[in-house]
Amino acid sequence: MPGIVMAVYPALGIDIANSIYSPSFQRRTAWILLALSIAEAITGFGAGPATSSIVYSLTFGALTRGLALQLHILLIAPLSLFFILHIASGIGLALIRRRITWRPLYTYVIPSVLIVLFLITMYLYSLLVII
């Protein structure tokens, strides 16, 4: 456990250049979110009863309605993870720019809220998958 904390600690520090609170990290999560959102939209249209035939023809039969529905449900987990990371990065960066330098906020409070939010979304996701 101490090894994990030592490995993650620089990523959660107040130093903008090497942390999840850097603008470059926020840009990377934004691009990943864009790609995941487009994939979620395409698979959502592919899973729909009225639009599945259109997506099926546009993908030359590669994305059937069943596969689109499975992918649509599977994309929820990474989409929620990167959405929560993006929000935490933005909040942390805004607080750093306002010169709030209380170190436990960046190393414990924001990551704890991030983990709790992700656990809640994964619990709700598990309810969706089980049913």
UniProtKB/TrEMBL annotation:
This is Uncharacterized protein. The chain crosses the membrane at residues 30-51, 71-96, 108-130. It comes from the Archaea. Keywords: Membrane, Transmembrane, Transmembrane helix.
